[in-house]
Design a protein that fits this description.
The complex is a heterodimer of chains A (202) and B (62). Chain A contains eleven helices and no strands. Chain A is mostly helical. The longest helix of chain A is centred in the C-terminal third of the chain and has 27 residues. The radius of gyration of chain A is 21 Å and the shape is elongated. Chain B is 66% helix and 0% strand. Chain B has two helices and no strands. The chains are: A mainly alpha (202), B mainly alpha (62). At the A-B interface, helix 3, helix 4, helix 7, helix 8 and helix 10 of A face helix 1 and helix 2 of B.
Amino acid sequence: MAEEAQQTPAAVKPTDDEAFKKELVQLIPHLRAFARTLCGDPAAADDLAQDAMMKAWDARASFQMGTNMKAWTFMILRNQFYSEKRRSWRQSQLDQEAAERTLVAVDDPEAPVALDELRQGLAMLPPEQREALILVGAGGFAYEEAAEICDCAVGTVKSRVSRARRALHAILEEGAYDRDGAAAGDAMRSILADAERLSTVR
Amino acid sequence: MIEPMPSQDPRKSSAALDEARLRQQAIGVRLRQMFDEVVNEQVPDEFLEILKRADERSSGGN
């Protein structure tokens, strides 16, 4: 009887599954955040994060416990995103145009715009630069890990991140300038003020 | 009275470089904040329900 029980895979490795699940659950918030930066739209992002979570769960047998599950799940999510994206590339073009329109349309000078502008600025970056910057600059991944997730060379990640930083900087400056004739750098100043506040909190 | 600002060229030196560095840092802080904002959101129940159902399917025999 005991031998019979051992023959079903679930019975053989219940603790592994349990450990895997526990770690996966802890990664859900990060998967949602990464998906949000890729998709923009929160509902679409959650769909993507759920798909990635389930793909990771289904592939759990191929994951080696103790290795970097965060990078592994991010890679799954990213692959999922691009395989869908290939089918709807036109959609992303439209998203970008919408982002540009929004950037000009923001007209309440008192609104806490800095974060929105950062989002819109990100949306205007080429996707490969955006994801590299997000992974390294926000996700806390090392260049090497980001390279693994993006399936490219470490040097490529480094140059994408640095180009993204420069482009974002330029977009934020010009965005503020275009808005309503306000002095160039208003958005930047607002970001700086917030950053200062935030860094004192840390 | 107030003179239009002439060219800022004379100041485009180390001060400008420092400022650029500061701005890059500020963007970095904001970027992390944007990401963490979502990380700190409560995870919709749907996620855990889907995972729980999948787990039950795989461990419930069959």
